[in-house]
Amino acid sequence: MGIKIITDSASDIPKELALKYNIEVLPLLVYKDGDTTEYRDNVDIFPDDMYEFMIEGGTVKTAQVSYESFYRKFEECINTDDEYIYIAFSSELSGTYQTSKMVEIELKEKYGDINIEIIDTKAASLGFGLIVIEAAKVAKQTNDKSKVLETIKYMMKNIEHIFTVDNLEYLYRGGRVSKASAVIGGVLNIKPILDVEDGKLIPFEKVRGRKKAIKRIAELVSKRNIDLEKLIVGINYSYNKKDALLLADMLKKMYGIENYILGEIGCSIGAHTGPGTLSVYFLKQNN
Q1: Per-residue pLDDT tens for 2-52?
Q2: What are residue 39's phi and psi, to 5 degrees?
Q3: ∠ CA(34), CA(89), CA(280), 5° rounding?
Q4: Potential cystine with 91: which of 96, 97, 180, 209 (Cβ 3.0-4.6 Å)?
């Protein structure tokens, strides 16, 4: 008997780490404008292909993990001796968590108590992914479910998200900024610095120019942390790996940070933030 971790593709966990820590990833769904095909994030459609489509003027929409997918997976779990924890994308940004809870209710009515715990991380992208990875590490080391849940709770409380986007138009399409802000931002080359607070996307600073935005992200890491040399950070990007490596180099030169997870923002997140997004995630240590 063991403890198994399930998550969804909005966690943007690099495939090699999902394999290493035996994390099962359920894909959110992606739809291209004018195409009725249902694409599974990072299964049928991959980030670079989607970003190229968006750069050429195409629009994409996303949908949560389907009810049927949850039902099949959770029912499969019930028929094993293992304990399962499904760690979900923020309920403030997607209906995925709510759908998983609906499936849980139906299965409990059918089977009684089930061996699946569902957690709303109130986190997104690789910030969410770092919570999942740490939970999976603990799950591999122990059969104590309470320790895994304590780890998740601690990570959720202390995980930080800081990111910028290259084009405000994509945030406007997703209802995150006004049309006026998107237009003015484009004209003035304004790059917003954003955060995730209680599961919601929050713009909190504006910087003019891409290079200044990257530098500001690096500066903000030090304002939210102590003991920076031991910090493990997540850095991810959409169609701009060069900028991600530049940010990693800045963090090394400024603070001695050498441990980081580098990954590409998947389709379920990138559809709303667009190509050119750059993010850093880390565990706050000053409280």
Answers
A1: 999 999 999 999 999 999 999 999 999 999 998 889 999 999 999 999 999
A2: -105, 135
A3: 95
A4: 97
187: domain range? 159-283
- 134 and 16, same structural domain? yes
Q: Say whether pTM exceeds 0.85.
A: yes
Contact 53, 32 (CB under 8 A): yes
| Ranges assigned E (strand) in the chain | 3-8, 23-26, 29-32, 39-40, 60-63, 83-88, 116-120, 159-164, 190-197, 200-208, 232-237, 259-264, 278-283
Q: Are 182 and 169 in contact (CB under 8 A)?
A: yes
Strands 3-8 and 83-88: parallel
Both 93 and 7 in a single domain? yes
Tell how far CA 124 is from the center of its chain: 3
Residue after which a domain boundary falls, among 157, 173, 208: 157
Q: Across the strands, what pairs with 264?
A: 237
Tell me: do 153 and 164 sit in the same domain. Answer: no
Q: Please give the Cα distance from 23 to 54 (Å, whole number).
A: 30
CB 135 within 8 A of CB 87: yes
Task: Supply the DSSP string of 231-272, one letter for each residue.
Answer: -EEEEEESS-HHHHHHHHHHHHHHH---EEEEEE--HHHHHH
For residue 37, being part of any structural domain is answered with no
Does any domain span residue 49? no
